[in-house]
Design a protein that fits this description.
210 residues, alpha/beta, Rossmann fold, five-stranded parallel β-sheet, three-stranded antiparallel β-sheet, 7 helices, 21% strand, globular
Length: 210
């Protein structure tokens, strides 16, 4: 089993794989927060422009671990309606949760707007996150980028579940994943020695000064 020391190690390994495969582009975009930390490292490693994308997971307020979708700051979203029903949510409750999560993503937009790309048209874009369990966050990010008419869209990710890989592949021209995991017992943190959460303050300082 492939294991990374931390997000920096994962980013450097991802960069090496992208170099090996001859993949480059115009813009690297990382999903907040871990993916954004990695996007800067990979961008500098490849000599590419980089930026961040605020996306929030969608889950019931009383059960934050039960994510059933994701939404970007502009309202672009994806969610599993069937799973939401299993969680006991009706259409109105789903709409209310979406509204709250869009508001939270907009707060992140205000915090990170200096690092958020506005122009994707005609560009070859690489989307990055630090791992992918369900795939919803990555799909919301992909839909956001696709709506802005890029020339191409590649997903680069250190580790993902086979379920998520199969779910997201239709949204990308190519997927680079260093470790596709076939076990049903999957958590991204299992593949990192250090997978602590990054605070907004830490990340903004890193994006600004390092």
């Amino acid at each position: 089993m492939l294991k990374f020391e931390d997000r920096k190690d994962a980013a450097l390994k991802l960069c090496e794989r992208l170099k090996e495969e001859g993949i480059s582009g115009d813009l690297i975009v990382g999903i907040l927060r871990g993916g954004s930390y990695m996007a800067k490292i990979v961008g500098e490693c490849l000599g590419m422009a980089w930026g961040v994308l605020p996306v929030k997971k969608i889950s019931p307020p009383e059960s934050p671990e039960s994510g059933f979708g994701a939404v970007a700051y502009d309202g672009t979203n994806v969610y599993d309606e069937e799973y939401a029903r299993l969680l006991g949510l009706d259409e109105e409750e789903i709409k209310e949760i979406l509204k709250v999560k869009v508001s939270e993503a907009k707060v992140l937009y205000e915090k990170y707007k200096n690092f958020i790309p506005e122009d994707f048209w005609g560009k070859k874009v690489i989307l990055i996150d630090d791992g992918m369990a369900t795939g919803y966050t990555v799909i919301a990010g992909a839909k956001f980028v696709r709506e802005r008419k890029p020339k191409g869209l590649i997903l680069a990710i250190p580790v993902c579940s086979e379920f998520a890989y199969n779910l997201v592949k239709e949204f990308f021209d190519k997927i680079i994943c260093l470790e596709v995991v076939r076990s049903i017992f999957f958590a991204v943190g299992m593949f990192y020695e250090d997978f602590r959460q990054i605070s907004d303050e830490e990340l903004i300082e890193f994006l600004t000064n390092h």
